[in-house]
Design a protein that fits this description.
Blueprint: H1 3-16, H2 24-40, H3 45-59, H4 70-85, E1 101-106, H5 113-125, E2 131-135, H6 141-154, E3 158-159, H7 172-182, E4 186-190, H8 199-212, E5 216-222, H9 227-239, E6 244-248, H10 257-266, E7 270-274, E8 282-284, H11 287-295
Parallel strand pairs: 1-4, 1-5, 2-3, 2-4, 5-6, 6-7
Antiparallel strand pairs: 7-8
Bound molecules: guanosine-5'-diphosphate.
Length: 296
């Protein structure tokens, strides 16, 4: 994860070691190197700007702290700024005061939406909650089978569309009935994806949102995708409304741009990260732990 950014930052910090106290020139040079490293990691321009400005405000004119070398002082401030752009605090899914808590999984095809729906179902099952998965991605028949298989693997029931169902909204009355019968506390709806954002998809999601009134609309984003993923997220948020983001495939080596940009651009928290294909590889997102991992 973030190997090249971590490597770049380590190089910058290493160069600082042995250069004594924090002179204005040294701070200036370091800020410039960090700026370039972030741009190369594909972090959005505005976020890079706010990061280096925040860092500059902390470092410029800062007296040398006793017991800390200049390098240690810079690392501490980069860490703080990184925690800040990642969202400062952990954001969780708040369950509805009156069950069921309905969660929409949204995202483009291939983002890992269906897998993440099952991972989240397992997460809630682990909290001893009664969970129902809903296969509402009628655009991709394989997605229905995939969710059925995943549900069987984790022992969570999946509401499947009856043969001949063409409109996802037709599933809603069945979901309502099943929730009452099964006293489900958490309902996770795997909504349709597409290869790109289009108006038909947005229209479908808007209609479903109106019908279900979900407590959480989670956007699943492939961390390998870079800046274009941030653009897609902005469209989902403007059209449907996004309550939180789940980044998938963080077990792979991503440049990190989308992960570092999305909180500031979207003003919505990252809630979970996918760390592998297996269904237990979903982790809560902690900005401080992620910042430590990135800094190395
Ligand atoms: P969907 O089209 O958005 O529903 O995507 P899928 O759930 O079918 O996932 C697409 C591919 O990404 C599958 O091969 C998944 O196993 C894989 N995938 C999903 N999440 C992760 C993850 O966190 N790490 C890795 N390495 N692969 C993942």
């Amino acid at each position: 994860m973030f190997e090249s950014l971590t490597g770049r930052l380590e190089g910058i910090f290493k160069k600082l070691t042995g250069r004594g106290g924090l002179t204005e020139q040294l701070v200036g040079e370091t800020l410039e190197e960090i700026r370039v490293a972030l741009l190369e990691a594909d972090v959005s321009l505005d976020v890079v700007k706010s990061f280096t400005e925040g860092l500059s405000a902390r470092l410029v004119g800062q007296a040398q702290k006793s017991g800390l070398t200049g390098a240690q002082q810079v690392i501490a401030e980069v860490y703080q700024e990184m925690v800040h752009i990642l969202g400062d605090h952990r954001a969780t899914i708040a369950l509805a005061s009156k069950p069921p808590t309905i969660i929409f999984m949204m995202g483009l095809q291939g983002s890992g939406k269906t897998t993440t729906a099952a991972k989240l179902a397992l997460h809630f099952k682990g909290q001893n909650r009664r969970v129902l998965l809903v296969a509402s991605d009628l655009a991709r028949l394989a997605a229905i089978d995939q969710l059925k298989v995943l549900g069987e693997q984790i022992g969570v029931p999946v509401l499947l569309p009856p043969d001949g169902t063409t409109r996802p909204s037709d599933l809603y009355p069945l979901v309502k009935r099943r929730v009452i019968e099964g006293m489900y506390e958490v309902v996770i709806v795997d909504t349709a994806g597409r290869l790109t954002v289009d108006s038909a998809l947005m229209g479908e999601l808007k209609e479903l949102r109106r019908l279900y009134s979900p407590k959480e609309c989670l956007l699943v984003v492939d961390a390998m995708q870079g800046q274009e993923a941030v653009g897609v997220a902005k469209t989902f948020d403007a059209e449907i409304g996004v309550d939180g983001v789940v980044f998938t495939k963080l077990d792979g080596d991503t440049r990190g741009g989308a992960v570092l940009s999305i909180r500031q651009v979207l003003k919505k928290p990252i809630k979970f990260v996918g760390m592998g294909e297996k269904l237990d590889r979903l982790e809560a997102f902690f900005p401080d732990r992620m910042a430590s991992r990135i800094i190395g």
